[in-house]
Amino acid sequence: MRKYLSIICIIVLGLGLTNSLMFEKVHAATKSTNSYTITDMRSNNFGFYEINDFIASDSIDGFVDTKSGKLSFKPNDKVTRAQFAKLLLSAMGITPQKVDQKFSDVSPNKWYADYINTAQKLDIISGYKDGKFKPSENITRGQIAAMIVRAFDKTVDFPETSIQQFPDVSSKTTFAKEINQAASLKIISGYGDGQFKSANLATRSQAVVMIYRALSDEKPSKASNQVVENVVMNYVDDVESTFTSTGIETPPLTKVYNKYGSEYFNLFSLQRVENTKNQIQHNSKLLLKDSERKTNVLFLSDRYAEILVSNASTPEITTNDGKVVKLENLNANGLYFLKNTANGWKIYNYSAASDGISSPRTNKSSNVENNTTLKDIISKEKSVVTLVSYDDFGQPVSQGSGFIVSDRLIASNYHVVEGSKRVEAILQSGEEIEIEGIVEYDVDSDLVLLKSKSVLKETPLKLGSYQMVEKGDSVVAIGNPEGLTNTVSNGIVSGLRDFMINNKTYHLIQFTAPITFGSSGGPLFNMDGYVVGLTSMGYDSGNLNFAIAIDGVKNWLQKYQSVAGNNIPVKNPEQSDSSENNNSPSDQEYTISNIDSLRISGIDMADSLIDPNKPYIYMIDKTSRELLIINYVNKEKSIVPLNYEPSGLSLSEDGRKLFIVNRKTKFLLSIYNLEKNEMETHLEYEILDYTHDDNVHRHVYERDNKIFVVIGTWAPKLIAFNAVTYQPIEIPNIEGVGSMVFSNDNKHFYYWYQYGWSAGWAASYIMKYSIDGNNLIEDGRADVDYPYLTRDPLDSPIILLEDKNLLISKACIFDSGDLSLLNIFPEPIYAASSDLNIVVGKNGAYRLHNTLKVEAKAFNFTGYDIQKMDFKQNELLIFNKQGSDIVIQRIKIVKK
Fold first, then answer.
1. pTM for the full predicted model
2. Is the dihedral of CA 70, 75, 76, 80 positive or negative?
3. Is the CB of residue 167 less than 8 Å from the CB of residue 8?
4. What is the pLDDT of residue 605?
5. Cα–Cα dist 146/125, whole Å
6. Does the keyword Signal feature in the UniProt annotation (predicted)?
7. What CA–CA distance (Å, rounded) separates 439 from 271?
């Protein structure tokens, strides 16, 4: 048993007490009884599922806005040492006691006193050498690792290891032993560069995840003798293999029995993949009585349970004293959340089967018995059609896929039929069906509902929901890639992505089943045979494919349930641009024209920029060591000789000075005064190692009277100077800085992570910092699975569109607030216009809101060697290298 028994009466493993983190100046309150949706986190955010599990089980509370009632968690806020002590004890189920006072700075009348003193009594915390605990000091990642190892040393098998788990954790690092022990069990993990960064201040989300992982590894010294009947799965006979949360394979289960307390079971079978959590407390006597129909326990502790009812009679619960308690209002199928209150077990949330299941960490498949096999799904191909679009001359212009959803309606992607004069559907039998017109469409979500002129005799497909999909689920795609009718491919769901357009949220399903041209609009099935999405776009590498959630189509169909098929109204495809629900540009919505071009002969361009307020382009030649000032309207050009080899260029905020960052010299910066047309000064800053200067590209930025310079070492470092005195400013050490971008108010900056230039760390991630005087404070981080956000190409900028709260880096688009990944473009993006709703890469232009390509001759960059692209109002400037020259092409884009 635990060593804690002398202090507490009952130890509840897992998530069993209703304690909350207390934060000053923020109202903390319990969650709503009918919802615990965290508004400031999304499913792809670090710690999302762990925090949801903690909140759902009442182990911690979030913050409730007193006006709106919305629940938030503030995952990126820092955690004080006192707050962490309370969180740790609360999650472990340890009730704080009135014990002897040890720390001189812990007053007995403070809210945290009993938590800190109890944790000290249990040897979880030790304090500082001066006898203080420093409760208001923010806790570091290393300190958390030490506390966790001490707290769980009797219930988690920490190895006695001296193996160094992180390159920045040596034997001299404080808490090195505990860090290596916790890391060996994957309770703690490092950053994308492989480092742990022990001295970094921990965030709320990091703290929760570390505790959560430790709880999942707990093993009571005395195994439970409790058996919970009919837990987790319906299809025991179909289970081929079972894995624990640590990835260890166990024999196939014939009876679910978990003696350890908290583990994840991934149950793999041909029919279905389930990823549900089953937790049985060894002190609990809670049993669910099965009836002739199915009732599954998805999560169970002595205080909290999740019960999935599928065609079940009202279940009964046996309490510790043997009394049978009949639960009321459990007659409908669905997911029930139960909590053991002072007045017995009560329902505090319910999700009906027809609405899908929204609880985290539960299987989201249909709540009905289903023995669908892969062959059953393939047999549905008869309801999948090939869609061919024709132009005004009767020539086919595009081909895609669609599927039958009623006796007169076919669903597909809007881009398959966009701009067409006529559309026809070809059945598997070869029969050609003429499309009468478009019934509904939404360009933002790329969905369309088509009506056929004749009755469709094939069986409509069953439509599911985004709520029926979970990461890891098996899926099957059927479509017509490259004209190969009804090709079947299978894979798994590798991610769930949300994005917002015009204050409306859309859902994407990322999956690994291969698709290519012609697959667009085809159905994506789950293993219960339901269509959960429409395959929309795929990429040539990385098994990166996306489907649009089916929910939008389902909503449309509800409008026509009582309308006879021949009476459903349509609009012709060529009239679709005038549809009242079309709120997105078509290719004909722009007037695109070439303004002119300007050739700069014999230049080895290191960097360039466009003056936002004047008709000037500034360009630096690294070979000739020259600054070029070019008026692109009258084509006049002036040349300023430079003393040193330039690498990067920036314009001051007031437009009066140019900052040129140099390499291969101790004079790091040259400042050119545009008003006086003279070099103002050369700023000396010794770079200790010039070994790799031939490879580096240094960056310079002037913001809020500070000059930020990224010195292009192997892991580029950020340094700063006062823009008035030119003296160095002491800032926190930040390395691995790629391209940067600043907010308009200069309170934040973002960068993508760079390590190496021709080798080294190929993955990347996005960092967000807040600026408070000379303090630079990490404000957020977005980790995106490799290879979707890579270090290369090194020349791609990071773009901030503040009016849309969007951040673009490489091919990825993020929410600039919480850094959640919203969408992925087909290629890295080099320029963006919020007003025009267009972004451009080196292979073409794309719509900002849905990543679809804009087909226009002016955006065909075939044969170009693009060095730079940028927007200025409604003009796109393209810097194209032709031999030893740079040709600057100006394109005017006007929305009709």
1. 0.45
2. positive
3. no
4. 95
5. 8
6. yes
7. 35
Q: What angle do CA 383, 510, 445 make, to 5 degrees?
A: 70
Cβ 746 vs Cβ 738: under 8 Å: no
| Pair 538, 669 in one domain | no
Q: Which of 819, 839, 867 is the last residue of a domain?
A: 819
Backbone angles phi, psi at 870, to 5 degrees: -160, 150
Cα angle at 541 between 415 and 512, to 5 degrees? Answer: 75
Query: How is residue 180 annotated by DSSP?
Result: H
Check pLDDT > 60 for residue 352: no
Report the distance separating Cα 778 and Cα 769, nearest Å.
4
- DSSP designation for 81: H
Q: Which tokens go with 110?
A: 């403070």
Give Cβ neighbours of residue 120 (< 8 Å, ≥ 6 apart). Answer: 102, 103, 126, 127, 133
How many Cα atoms within 13 Å fall on the side-chain side of residue 136? 5
**CA torsion sign, 375 to 377 to 378 to 381?**
positive
Tokens (6 digits) for 513: 């089943």
344 phi and psi angles, rounded to 5 deg:
100, -175
Contact between 470 and 363 under an 8 Å Cβ cutoff? The reply is yes
**Mean pLDDT computed over every residue of the chain:** 74
Locate 412 and state its tokens: 């597909």
| Shared domain check, 240 and 218 | no
Q: Which residue has the tokens 């597909």?
A: 412
Residue 29 predicted with pLDDT over 50 = no
Residue 877 maps to a domain: no
Q: How many domains does the chain have?
A: 4
**The pLDDT value given to residue 89:** 83
CA–CA separation, 136 and 43 (whole Å) = 31
Tell me the pLDDT band of 516, cut-offs 50, 70 and 90. low
Helix (H) or strand (E) holding 296: strand 294-300
Contact by Cβ (8 Å): 830, 796: yes
Residue 731 domain-assigned?
A: yes
**Is 861 contained in some domain?**
no
Contact yes or no for 106/116 (Cβ under 8 A):
yes
Q: 445: domain range?
A: 374-584
DSSP letters, 538-607, are E-SSTT-EEEEETHHHHHHHHHTTTS-GGG---B-GGGGGG-TT--S--GGGEEEEEEEEEEE-S--EEE
Are 535 and 519 within 8 A, CB to CB? yes
Q: At what angle do helices 81-92 and 141-151 cross, to 10 degrees?
A: 30
User: What does the alpha-carbon distance between residue 393 and residue 395 come to, in Å, rounded to a whole number?
Assistant: 6
